[in-house]
């Protein structure tokens, strides 16, 4: 079983590239972020033509997440993150979607960027990560096979970026962001890519600016966190880097992991 994640940066703008990737790599499950489409405009019929069924949580022009499954309909289990208290700020961002596919609970996330920091956007990022941890703790307690995948907008380690100095003031690398991510690992979740690439140096994102792709100035912010029930079955993980270099590509490359069925 192969589960993948792809920040597509606009599902309609990148649809040819997305369909191309799906047909070439054929993941069992594909989680999409930054769909940037309202629910009624999501091109589900285009995916059905090649055998994929979808659930999605859209938002006009921004955010948006979706879960596609090959040959079966994902069974949605959660849309949006629960609030931790009645005092929590109302959150209408489409950033979290969860579904059951093939005996695995899959959560697709698009974590807030948090820039500029310090400021309200960074505060929102940290509050969202706190809510995410609470949901992941709930999933952990269920003792079911589970994977939380997507664009976490966190660079966990210095060897996850081409130049730590270049990104040191970015919200993606702040100690608070990193600490919140490490708390998830401390709860027992396994970082699939890191586990199989312990020395780092694996990028999932290259900015459109300053020739970042051509110079390989990238970093790793797309992560796949596995519960023990999934981590014990892990047999492979990687990045489909060549898809970042294609015409009108997303600024992210797809990431994936594979488990024994």
UniProtKB/TrEMBL annotation:
Residue ranges occupied by any Endonuclease/exonuclease/phosphatase domain in the UniProt entry: 4-252
Signal peptide start-end: none
Entry-linked CDD domains: ExoIII-like_AP-endo
GO molecular function: double-stranded DNA 3'-5' DNA exonuclease activity; metal ion binding
PANTHER family the record matches: EXODEOXYRIBONUCLEASE III
Organism per entry: Allopontixanthobacter sediminis
Cofactor(s) needed by this chain: Mg(2+); Mn(2+)
Active site: residue positions: 110, 151 (proton donor/acceptor), 252 (proton acceptor)
Record GO biological process: DNA repair
Cofactor mode of binding and number, as noted: Probably binds two magnesium or manganese ions per subunit.
UniProt site (Important for catalytic activity): 222
Family: Belongs to the DNA repair enzymes AP/ExoA family.
Coiled coil: none
Annotated site residues (Transition state stabilizer) in this chain: 153
Keywords: Hydrolase, Magnesium, Manganese, Metal-binding
Residues at the site labelled Interaction with DNA substrate: 252
Gene responsible for this protein: xth
Highest taxon, organism lineage: Bacteria
Residues annotated to bind Mg(2+): 7, 34, 151, 153, 251-252
InterPro entries: AP_endonuc_1, Endo/exonu/phosph_ase_sf, Endo/exonuclease/phosphatase, ExoIII-like
Enzyme Commission numbers on file: 3.1.11.2
Designated name of the protein: Exodeoxyribonuclease III
SUPFAM superfamilies: DNase I-like
Main EC class the enzyme belongs to: hydrolase
């Amino acid at each position: 079983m192969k589960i993948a994640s792809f920040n597509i940066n606009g599902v309609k703008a990148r649809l040819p590239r997305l369909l191309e990737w799906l047909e070439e790599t054929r993941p069992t499950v594909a989680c999409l972020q930054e769909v940037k489409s309202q629910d009624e405009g999501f091109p589900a019929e285009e995916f059905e033509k090649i055998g994929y069924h979808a659930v999605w949580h859209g938002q006009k022009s921004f955010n948006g997440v979706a879960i596609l499954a090959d040959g079966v309909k994902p069974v949605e289990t959660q849309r949006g993150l629960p609030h931790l208290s009645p005092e929590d700020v109302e959150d209408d961002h489409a950033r979290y979607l969860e579904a059951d596919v093939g005996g695995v609970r899959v959560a697709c996330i698009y974590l807030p960027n948090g820039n500029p920091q310090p400021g309200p956007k960074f505060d929102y990022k940290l509050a969202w990560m706190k809510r995410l941890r609470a949901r992941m703790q709930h999933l952990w307690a269920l003792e079911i096979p589970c994977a939380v995948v997507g664009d976490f907008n966190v660079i966990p380690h210095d060897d996850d970026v081409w130049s730590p100095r270049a990104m040191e003031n970015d919200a993606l690398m702040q100690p608070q962001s990193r600490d919140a991510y490490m708390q998830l690992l401390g709860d027992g979740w396994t970082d699939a890519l890191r586990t199989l690439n312990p020395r780092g140096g694996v990028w999932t994102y290259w900015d459109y600016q300053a020739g970042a792709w051509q110079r390989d100035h990238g970093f790793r912010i797309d992560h796949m966190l596995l519960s023990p029930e999934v981590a014990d079955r892990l047999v492979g993980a990687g990045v489909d880097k060549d898809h970042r270099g294609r015409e009108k590509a997303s600024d992210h490359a797809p990431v994936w992991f594979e488990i024994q069925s």
